[in-house]
Design brief:
Length: 418
Amino acid sequence: MKLNRRSFIAAGAATATLGAPSLRANTKPRVVVIGGGAGGATVARYVAKDSKGEIDVTLIEPTRQYYTCFFSNLYLGGFREMDSLGHSYGNLAAGGVNVVHDWAIGIDRDAKTVALAGGGSVPYDRLVLSPGIDFVDGAVPGWSTMAQNAMPHAYKGGSQTELLRAQINAMPEGGTFVMVAPPNPYRCPPGPYERVSMVAHTLKANNPKAKIIIVDPKEKFSKQALFEEGWGKHYTGMVERIGPDFGGANVEVNPDEMTVNVDGEVIKADVCNVIPAMKAGKICEMAGVTEGNWAPVSGHTMQSKIDENIHVLGDACSQGDMPKSGFSANSQAKVAAMAVRGALTGSKVFPAKFSNTCWSLIDTDDGVKVGATYEATDEKIAKVDGFISQTGEDADLRKTTYEESVGWYAGITADMFG
């Protein structure tokens, strides 16, 4: 099936359920959502829309314009402009969501309130956390968020992405781009390698003698055969990967000197993209719903295994087999919205089912994908079946795959923001 905006939204509507009168005689139940990305915006919109005014929905998100991290690599490759990645919350507000542009700075689970940086607090009956990712302190020796201007991570959409593109465009002739890739698990498993492809696309056109070095702590990575085939075909001799067997797991950076020390060998970088190890957004830790770096949930409802009145979505949660992706967060949000409405209004709840596809662009019209369907078990969200592009596919199929990804982007952002 070729995905487009209409078919994507129609697929999401399959989880719609019948409403029922509020369990409260005089007061509407209250749902508060923290984080306005693929998970948070979707769950806020679906709870407000499908409850038809029976539930008060508040979305807390500090930014007024949300820039998707997914598809930001295409901006680095020159296939999209930054404006095309930005989305406002106006349609959510028009659809009945109370959008509060502020930082959530604390959660009182006993009182069921969320404290705001601007003062005051917001009460909830159910709380949904979808804050995305933060970085593990000290994950890459020598790097911290204080160094992100010199060595950007660009793993949160917006200004960091713009900074990285500006640095790439300013590279000297024949310069060196170094990526420090993250360990598992992390946001968007193919993301770093699609980024390498898009950086290579830009450099091939503007700086063809430049080099790209990937320093990688992982033995293997998502779509590896597809990316390596593409790099060999489109960017011959430009991309080198240093895996753990050659020191990729023993890395230290010096942002002041713009150097990367790989197991004792010092590389001088003109641009260094450091993507550190990741963890759940800090508000999850502040809420006390994390174990280790992530927040464990039940796949049936996306409820926290620590607090049944809190649901955790997307990159921040530990749920089983699903990758940390925008599509996963959007899919999980619909399950959570159904569960929240069922708990607060008595509406029917159907068995949880999920889907995900991750598209990547290697070069012009050379798109590849990987995906799967999932179902909830008592243990985890479990993979049911999957698919992946194959090496050696013809150009027409790869072009169709890329066009499918463009339709998906239009569909999911419409599904998120209305």
